[in-house]
Amino acid sequence: MVDETEPLKDGEAPNNETLAAELVLGLLDGDEKATALRKQLSDPAFAKSVDDWNRRVDPLFQEFQDVEPAPSVWDGIESRLDGGTFDDTVVQLKRWRMGAIASGALAACLALALIVGPGPFAPTSESQSVAVAQLTGKIEGLVLAVSYDPQTAEMRVDVDGMPETETEPELWIVGRDGLPRSLGQIGRDGISQMTVSSDHRKLIDAAATLQLSMEPPSEIPHAKPTSEPVATGKITII
Protein backbone atom coordinates (compact mmCIF):
# COMPACT_ATOMS: atom_id res chain seq x y z
CA MET A 1 0.00 0.00 0.00
CA VAL A 2 1.31 3.42 -0.91
CA ASP A 3 1.87 5.80 1.98
CA GLU A 4 -0.01 9.06 1.68
CA THR A 5 2.25 12.08 1.34
CA GLU A 6 2.11 14.73 4.02
CA PRO A 7 -0.07 17.71 3.08
CA LEU A 8 1.85 20.82 2.13
CA LYS A 9 2.01 23.61 4.68
CA ASP A 10 1.08 27.16 3.74
CA GLY A 11 3.78 28.66 1.50
CA GLU A 12 5.63 25.36 1.18
CA ALA A 13 6.69 24.41 -2.37
CA PRO A 14 6.15 20.84 -3.66
CA ASN A 15 9.16 18.61 -4.19
CA ASN A 16 10.32 17.65 -7.67
CA GLU A 17 8.33 14.42 -7.91
CA THR A 18 5.08 16.04 -6.78
CA LEU A 19 5.54 19.05 -9.06
CA ALA A 20 6.36 16.82 -12.05
CA ALA A 21 3.27 14.71 -11.39
CA GLU A 22 1.04 17.78 -11.13
CA LEU A 23 2.41 19.13 -14.41
CA VAL A 24 1.83 15.84 -16.24
CA LEU A 25 -1.65 15.36 -14.78
CA GLY A 26 -2.69 18.88 -15.80
CA LEU A 27 -3.21 20.14 -12.25
CA LEU A 28 -1.17 23.33 -12.68
CA ASP A 29 -2.23 26.59 -14.26
CA GLY A 30 -1.20 30.22 -14.39
CA ASP A 31 2.03 31.10 -12.60
CA GLU A 32 2.41 27.59 -11.18
CA LYS A 33 2.41 26.05 -14.67
CA ALA A 34 4.75 28.69 -16.08
CA THR A 35 7.22 28.13 -13.21
CA ALA A 36 7.12 24.36 -13.73
CA LEU A 37 7.71 24.69 -17.49
CA ARG A 38 10.70 26.96 -16.89
CA LYS A 39 12.07 24.47 -14.40
CA GLN A 40 11.60 21.68 -16.98
CA LEU A 41 13.75 23.63 -19.43
CA SER A 42 16.51 24.54 -16.97
CA ASP A 43 16.68 21.58 -14.57
CA PRO A 44 17.68 18.23 -16.19
CA ALA A 45 16.73 16.26 -13.08
CA PHE A 46 13.25 17.76 -13.02
CA ALA A 47 12.87 17.26 -16.80
CA LYS A 48 13.68 13.56 -16.27
CA SER A 49 11.01 13.35 -13.56
CA VAL A 50 8.45 14.84 -15.97
CA ASP A 51 9.48 12.35 -18.69
CA ASP A 52 9.22 9.47 -16.20
CA TRP A 53 5.72 10.53 -15.18
CA ASN A 54 4.66 10.87 -18.81
CA ARG A 55 5.77 7.28 -19.50
CA ARG A 56 3.92 6.01 -16.43
CA VAL A 57 0.68 7.89 -16.99
CA ASP A 58 0.30 7.70 -20.80
CA PRO A 59 -0.64 3.98 -20.88
CA LEU A 60 -3.22 4.59 -18.16
CA PHE A 61 -4.89 7.46 -19.99
CA GLN A 62 -5.01 5.51 -23.26
CA GLU A 63 -7.23 2.86 -21.64
CA PHE A 64 -10.03 5.27 -20.77
CA GLN A 65 -12.35 7.56 -22.67
CA ASP A 66 -12.89 11.13 -21.48
CA VAL A 67 -16.07 11.54 -19.46
CA GLU A 68 -17.33 14.96 -18.44
CA PRO A 69 -18.57 14.84 -14.82
CA ALA A 70 -21.91 16.39 -14.01
CA PRO A 71 -21.67 19.90 -12.49
CA SER A 72 -23.29 18.55 -9.34
CA VAL A 73 -20.24 16.35 -8.63
CA TRP A 74 -17.81 19.18 -7.88
CA ASP A 75 -20.57 21.31 -6.34
CA GLY A 76 -21.25 18.48 -3.93
CA ILE A 77 -17.58 18.13 -3.01
CA GLU A 78 -17.16 21.87 -2.44
CA SER A 79 -20.28 22.05 -0.28
CA ARG A 80 -18.89 19.33 2.01
CA LEU A 81 -15.53 21.01 2.60
CA ASP A 82 -15.69 22.99 5.82
CA GLY A 83 -13.64 26.13 6.40
CA GLY A 84 -10.98 27.80 4.23
CA THR A 85 -11.33 30.24 1.38
CA PHE A 86 -12.47 29.35 -2.12
CA ASP A 87 -8.84 29.40 -3.32
CA ASP A 88 -7.91 26.97 -0.55
CA THR A 89 -10.75 24.72 -1.68
CA VAL A 90 -9.52 24.70 -5.29
CA VAL A 91 -5.99 23.79 -4.18
CA GLN A 92 -7.28 20.97 -1.98
CA LEU A 93 -9.43 19.64 -4.83
CA LYS A 94 -6.38 19.56 -7.10
CA ARG A 95 -4.35 17.68 -4.49
CA TRP A 96 -7.24 15.27 -3.94
CA ARG A 97 -7.62 14.52 -7.65
CA MET A 98 -3.89 13.92 -7.99
CA GLY A 99 -3.86 11.58 -4.99
CA ALA A 100 -6.87 9.65 -6.30
CA ILE A 101 -5.21 9.00 -9.65
CA ALA A 102 -1.75 8.25 -8.30
CA SER A 103 -2.72 6.02 -5.39
CA GLY A 104 -5.62 4.23 -7.02
CA ALA A 105 -4.29 3.45 -10.49
CA LEU A 106 -0.51 3.65 -10.14
CA ALA A 107 -0.03 2.51 -6.54
CA ALA A 108 2.38 -0.35 -6.98
CA CYS A 109 4.66 1.06 -9.68
CA LEU A 110 4.83 4.57 -8.18
CA ALA A 111 5.46 3.63 -4.56
CA LEU A 112 9.12 4.57 -4.65
CA ALA A 113 8.46 7.80 -6.56
CA LEU A 114 5.87 9.01 -4.08
CA ILE A 115 7.91 8.25 -0.95
CA VAL A 116 10.65 10.78 -1.46
CA GLY A 117 12.06 13.53 0.69
CA PRO A 118 11.48 17.18 -0.06
CA GLY A 119 13.73 18.60 -2.77
CA PRO A 120 14.85 22.13 -3.50
CA PHE A 121 12.40 24.25 -5.43
CA ALA A 122 12.69 28.00 -5.65
CA PRO A 123 10.00 29.75 -7.70
CA THR A 124 11.11 33.01 -9.23
CA SER A 125 10.07 36.06 -7.30
CA GLU A 126 8.63 37.62 -10.43
CA SER A 127 6.44 35.70 -12.87
CA GLN A 128 7.85 35.38 -16.39
CA SER A 129 6.01 34.22 -19.50
CA VAL A 130 6.64 30.93 -21.30
CA ALA A 131 5.66 30.09 -24.89
CA VAL A 132 4.09 26.69 -25.56
CA ALA A 133 2.61 24.98 -28.61
CA GLN A 134 1.26 21.60 -29.67
CA LEU A 135 1.76 20.58 -33.29
CA THR A 136 -0.42 18.07 -35.10
CA GLY A 137 -1.32 17.54 -38.74
CA LYS A 138 -1.32 15.14 -41.66
CA ILE A 139 0.58 12.24 -40.07
CA GLU A 140 -1.73 10.20 -37.88
CA GLY A 141 -0.46 9.89 -34.32
CA LEU A 142 2.25 12.54 -34.71
CA VAL A 143 2.30 15.06 -31.87
CA LEU A 144 4.95 17.62 -30.94
CA ALA A 145 4.87 19.43 -27.61
CA VAL A 146 7.02 22.57 -27.63
CA SER A 147 7.96 24.90 -24.79
CA TYR A 148 10.20 27.96 -25.00
CA ASP A 149 11.74 29.98 -22.17
CA PRO A 150 12.50 33.55 -23.33
CA GLN A 151 14.75 34.08 -20.31
CA THR A 152 17.23 31.44 -21.48
CA ALA A 153 16.24 31.23 -25.20
CA GLU A 154 16.00 27.45 -24.72
CA MET A 155 13.39 25.54 -26.71
CA ARG A 156 12.34 22.00 -25.82
CA VAL A 157 10.59 19.80 -28.39
CA ASP A 158 9.01 16.48 -27.38
CA VAL A 159 8.23 14.33 -30.45
CA ASP A 160 5.91 11.32 -30.43
CA GLY A 161 4.60 9.23 -33.33
CA MET A 162 7.11 10.21 -36.02
CA PRO A 163 7.31 7.52 -38.77
CA GLU A 164 10.59 6.42 -40.37
CA THR A 165 11.38 8.29 -43.59
CA GLU A 166 14.41 9.18 -45.68
CA THR A 167 13.85 12.85 -44.84
CA GLU A 168 14.37 14.56 -41.49
CA PRO A 169 11.95 16.69 -39.42
CA GLU A 170 12.75 20.41 -39.52
CA LEU A 171 11.04 22.99 -37.31
CA TRP A 172 10.02 26.41 -38.60
CA ILE A 173 8.79 29.61 -36.95
CA VAL A 174 6.28 31.64 -38.96
CA GLY A 175 5.97 35.22 -37.73
CA ARG A 176 3.58 38.05 -38.50
CA ASP A 177 5.00 38.43 -42.02
CA GLY A 178 3.97 34.86 -42.90
CA LEU A 179 7.50 33.75 -43.86
CA PRO A 180 8.82 30.46 -42.41
CA ARG A 181 12.27 30.60 -40.84
CA SER A 182 14.09 27.43 -39.88
CA LEU A 183 14.88 26.65 -36.27
CA GLY A 184 16.83 23.60 -37.39
CA GLN A 185 16.28 19.87 -37.70
CA ILE A 186 15.17 17.95 -34.62
CA GLY A 187 15.20 14.38 -33.40
CA ARG A 188 12.70 11.92 -34.80
CA ASP A 189 11.64 10.67 -31.39
CA GLY A 190 11.91 11.81 -27.78
CA ILE A 191 13.17 15.19 -26.66
CA SER A 192 15.27 17.72 -28.57
CA GLN A 193 16.60 20.91 -27.00
CA MET A 194 17.97 23.90 -28.85
CA THR A 195 18.99 27.50 -28.24
CA VAL A 196 16.99 29.80 -30.49
CA SER A 197 19.12 32.30 -32.39
CA SER A 198 18.82 35.98 -31.52
CA ASP A 199 17.28 36.77 -34.92
CA HIS A 200 14.42 34.35 -34.34
CA ARG A 201 13.69 35.05 -30.67
CA LYS A 202 11.74 38.20 -31.46
CA LEU A 203 9.41 36.17 -33.70
CA ILE A 204 8.17 33.94 -30.89
CA ASP A 205 4.96 35.56 -29.72
CA ALA A 206 1.23 34.88 -29.62
CA ALA A 207 0.86 35.81 -33.30
CA ALA A 208 3.39 33.19 -34.44
CA THR A 209 2.94 29.61 -35.61
CA LEU A 210 5.31 26.66 -35.52
CA GLN A 211 5.47 24.30 -38.50
CA LEU A 212 7.16 20.97 -39.10
CA SER A 213 8.23 19.83 -42.56
CA MET A 214 10.23 16.83 -43.76
CA GLU A 215 13.47 17.94 -45.39
CA PRO A 216 16.70 16.43 -46.77
CA PRO A 217 19.20 15.76 -43.96
CA SER A 218 21.33 18.82 -43.22
CA GLU A 219 23.53 20.04 -40.40
CA ILE A 220 22.55 23.67 -41.08
CA PRO A 221 19.02 25.09 -41.32
CA HIS A 222 17.47 25.31 -44.77
CA ALA A 223 16.62 28.71 -46.25
CA LYS A 224 13.04 27.67 -46.98
CA PRO A 225 10.89 24.53 -46.84
CA THR A 226 11.00 22.12 -49.78
CA SER A 227 7.69 20.48 -48.86
CA GLU A 228 4.34 21.25 -47.27
CA PRO A 229 4.09 21.23 -43.45
CA VAL A 230 3.12 17.90 -41.92
CA ALA A 231 2.25 19.48 -38.56
CA THR A 232 1.42 22.98 -37.35
CA GLY A 233 0.61 24.59 -34.03
CA LYS A 234 -0.23 28.07 -32.74
CA ILE A 235 2.03 29.52 -30.07
CA THR A 236 0.39 30.38 -26.76
CA ILE A 237 1.99 32.63 -24.15
CA ILE A 238 1.33 31.60 -20.55
Characterization of the model:
It is a single chain. Helix content is 33%, strand content 22%. With 238 residues, it is an alpha+beta fold. Strands 1, 2, 3, 4, 5, 6, 7, 8 and 9 form a nine-stranded antiparallel β-sheet that branches. Strand 2 and strand 3 form a beta hairpin. Helix 1 crosses helix 3 and helix 2 (30-42) packs across helix 3 (44-62).
Q: How would the blueprint of this fold be written?
A:
Blueprint: H1 16-24, H2 30-42, H3 44-62, H4 71-80, H5 86-105, H6 111-114, E1 131-137, E2 143-149, E3 154-160, E4 168-174, E5 180-185, E6 190-195, H7 198-201, E7 209-215, E8 231-234, E9 236-237
Antiparallel strand pairs: 1-2, 1-8, 1-9, 2-3, 3-6, 4-5, 4-7, 7-8
Helix pairs in contact: 1-3, 2-3
Q: What is the typical, i.e. mean, pLDDT?
A: 77
Rg calc: 20 Å
Oligomer: single chain
Distance between the termini: 38 Å
Helix percent band = 25-40%
**Number of distinct beta strands:** 9
